[in-house]
Amino acid sequence: MINLHKQNYYGETKEFMVRKKKLRFIGDSRINARMRAIDSKFMSLYRNLPFTYFWLYRRAFGNLLSGSKTVTMLDLGCGDGTATNRLNLPSGFEITGVDIFKKYLEIAKTLRIYQKLNHSDIKKYNPRSKFDVVVASHVLEHLNKKDGLKFIRKLENIAQNRVIIATPIGQFPQEDIDKNKYQIHKSTWDVEEMKNLGYKVYAQGFRSLWGESNVIKEYGVLSYFFFLLSYLLSPLLVLRPEWGTYMICVKCLETN
Predict the structure, then answer these.
(1) DSSP 3-state assignment of 244?
(2) The Methyltransferase type domain covers which part of the protein (predicted)?
(3) 145-176 pLDDT, tens per residue?
């Protein structure tokens, strides 16, 4: 009998992988499968290697990672839960996920990292209570500019301690993925704009290397060369974040 609860290096169960495979990934599925197999073996390294995406993402949580008390977290636009799962957050985190695409929620449920999952439009979702931290990972670019600014204000009203937003820097076209029309990118956001809204911005991935193309689809395993070169140049993004591909934006609302 197949153990559906057995986990890989990502912490993803067999059930998660089976369900996600049914949705199909963008691009060549065989290439993606090969890349995921390689990435799974190095995820713990990625999380702890300075300047990598998930290292920066984890740092955005600050002292919430080291505290002994329970931390309530709202993951708005949680998708299938992959990004949040890879953060490997402490067991004290009580996470509520919200997404409009029901198939993603079915997959997220198999990860067992969410205490609650809500099927709702993030623009209309209004929780009864506040959360210590509110996260919107690659959500902002899926809203038009007007709705995006309203959404940011909503995040800040819901959060007690901090807001964390991850989004591409500048133009990053994307059409629907997984037969999900909500995956289309509708707006662009830049570093200066987020700074003017009161956020600290941390950039990742040299844009001149990654560009707007699907490097993984074009180069397959050879795309790791781009990762290595981008990583070696990543300290420069501390001084020039506008050169990055993605940005992680943090606003602390309370000093503990």
Answers:
(1) strand
(2) 74-153
(3) 999 999 999 999 999 999 999 999 987 655 55
Q: Is the pLDDT of residue 34 over 90?
A: no
> Which of 14-18, 140-144, 150-154, 216-220: highest mean pLDDT?
150-154
Q: Of the candidates 60, 99, 90, 59, which has an alpha carbon nearest to the alpha carbon of residue 72?
A: 90
Domain borders along the chain are: 14-252
Which pLDDT belongs to residue 180? 55
Cβ pair 247, 240 in contact under 8 A:
no
Say which residue the tokens 């506040």 belong to. Answer: 130
Please, what sign has the CA dihedral across residues 101, 107, 109, 114?
Answer: negative
**C-alpha of 10 from chain center:** 14
Instruction: Say how many C-beta atoms besides its own lie within 10 A of residue 77's C-beta.
Output: 22
222 CB-near residues (< 8 Å, 6+ apart): none
Return the CATH class of domain 14-252: alpha beta
